[in-house]
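So, could you explain this one?
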Amino acid sequence: MKLSNLTNSLWWKDAAVRATYTALAIALPYLGASLLTEVPWVTVLLTAALGFLASIVTSLAGLPEVEGVHLPWWLAALERVVKTFAQSLAAGFIGATLITDVDWAFVLQAAFLAALTSLVRLILATLPADPSRTPLDAGEAKAGTVVNITTLATPSEIEATVADAVAAQKRRYLRGD
């Protein structure tokens, strides 16, 4: 647990964003259930609030984006989905006096739906805005590929680079590539 995070404004911003997404992911199954059955609105709000608080607490263990840790996408997604599932499960205990009072079928279903919502949000957040415009290094482009080149080079550097590219293209053409 890193209590030094409590004085870091970047940590608070990222933790609040994560907590908000978690609260929404947890609230959605309860909100859906409230439309079909007699789930009180206060239960929906309390589970979302508890999920928000649980997310803030688990973020104290560390947020990779604040600490500069670059996890592989699948590992970061797995960690986020498992945390959301556990936070939703804990939030499902709202209103239960004893463990036997918990409606386990509903709470587990809500936790799975919250975890799925978290995964879908992660997938959507990592998709490129326009898949046809995937960033591409112009030096790696194949013939016929249109690339956008942004440069801050001087005109003479640009002329030299264009001349080099034209010469390389001529060599490839002569070789039959």
About this structure: Helices lie at 9-36, 41-59, 64-67, 73-91, 104-126, 155-175. The mean pLDDT is 77.
